[in-house]
């Protein structure tokens, strides 16, 4: 508020001065005009008197020239007794006439106001003389003064008088003797051309001053109107000037704010004229480039004696009136520059520049460029990994297809009556094929992890059950080598945990088998206990979670430090001697490490050469409940009455796998029909009905996905159970099968228990409205 008052006070003072000055000016002008109008009124009265004098002198001249005028004698015009001429009175046609001289004529014309003649004129005139012939023409006091002044050489006499509050103008000019005057004035006094007397004019000034006062009133009203208009204009100008100055002040404030803001945000601003002279430079510019007002830009910045060879684009900006953007490097710093033309205060053209320090941005761009290169390299690596994963997945499928036959047929062969030698050979084939399947599974898992397609399944599971399964798998191999196996779980470990039991079991199996493989004597200890390390401060709010330490310790061959450093690398093993003695793919530990990483932890190892190794990791797991444990499924062992007599359409292009699956199904008294591809399956279902379809995925003519979609388009078959039976075991393959309309998925190599468990599940849910037709079979 105080700031506004400080800005307003000068304006109020100026306004008051303007008002006072304007009023005084009009008052002075009004007074001057009134004086001038009064003077003009007096001059007008004087001129009026002169005009009447001229008129009267013409009357006298005419009368003198004609020797007087005869008028009829009446009461108003009686003969003049003071004119003693022979022919003064005459009679014409019986009418009396008398000779009237100029003075008598004036008296009759103007009237005798002194005698109360109301018909007389307001302006009075008469002839008078110091020696009048007629006593009535005797001069008054002012007339005598006038006549005396004529004797002194004056040609005109003016006097103002006031009587009964009436102002009059007295005017007189002399009358000179003429030859014709001598006949009346016979006394012989005066010569021709001498002053005989004078004609006096009395002008009443009431009418003149009434007009004067009227004009003065009009002038006052006009000046009053002019004063009001002037006041309005002054107030209008005051308001406009105040707003304009306020705008200028605000503009200056905004300009100051902008300049201060530019300084605060470290934006350099400076102005140069076309002679390279710095007209303005803010503090940021002065700090960066040591610019000072009045100096040449190339001299103060670069310490040069000549301009910088158009590097600053001054001529282009000033002469061509273009806005230019360029980048400037100065003392290992980079600046973005915007140069635009400007007109300086003295009217000369100049250049305004804004400079922004982009050194940090340049560094970021360099980092981003490096990051982009790394990203491209990563994409190339990921593409290579993806290609490798696709290759491994395809290879896995191609290997699984014959492996299905090898494992299945060898298992069936072991169930027949074999000689001891035959049983020994076939059992070794079965064991070797299962080992090979394990390697294939490891390769497939590794490709899934590298491709980012491995997902953890979070469910509730009993930790003791997982350890029991681990014991069943490892104990057989340990006992074969005479090794002790101790699997212990601390009492304070929660019985039900929440996580991915399949992948945790896979890690522990890999570590356990690895310990058994590299241990010749001694024992294997597998422990699970609550971790002694505390939660971090930010994790104290985690209720219902537990931190568990897992360790697998052996008394085997141990490792050197350099071997430990490359232990978890893919396809990496110990030295060649060990590799020849202990076979393996080198994937088990790499897969285990990646799985534990996915669970939010890491695997470490402690080992001493010749004294054994200890692999350990820590997991944070949520405690679970028994109510959420998955329900156990019945094992399909022995006879399966629910499946006996059910009709199955087996769609398979590989003859060996077709034969193996047929044997497994018919051993449980199922009726099996064959189709070599998806087209044959569609043709079969057009005329025959079945209870279920086991569909391979990769087949010639028409694959399983297309065939399933075609089947689902038929209304009567939309509830028919269709189960994929394929070597494609990737999660994406399972998803693709379900999207095509398949109900479930059986992986190859076939596991008898899995096959019949899934078949019983979907047979129970099968729509009983399906009506069986003839049971003809296609050729096997």
Mean pLDDT: 79
Number of strands: 24
Radius of gyration over all CA atoms, rounded: 69 Å
Strand content: 15-25%
Distance between the termini: 105 Å
Query: What would you call the shape?
Result: rod-shaped
Q: Main sheet, how many strands, which sense, barrel?
A: 7 strands, mixed
Return residue spans where pLDDT drops below 50 for at least 5 consecutive residues: 113-120, 767-780
Multimeric state: single chain
Helix content: 40-55%
Task: Please count the helical segments.
Answer: 19
Structural class: alpha+beta
Q: Can you describe this structure?
A:
Helices cover 46% and strands 20% of the residues. Helix 1 (2-65) runs antiparallel to helix 4 (206-264), helix 8 (359-414) packs antiparallel against helix 9 and helix 16 packs parallel to helix 17. The two termini are 105 Å apart. The chain is α+β, with helices and mostly antiparallel strands and 780 residues long. Mean pLDDT is 79; it is low at 113-120 and 767-780. It is built from 19 helices and 24 strands. Strands 13, 14, 15, 16, 17, 18 and 19 form a seven-stranded mixed beta sheet that branches. Strands 9-8-12-11-10 form a five-stranded antiparallel beta sheet. It is rod-shaped, with a radius of gyration of 69 Å.
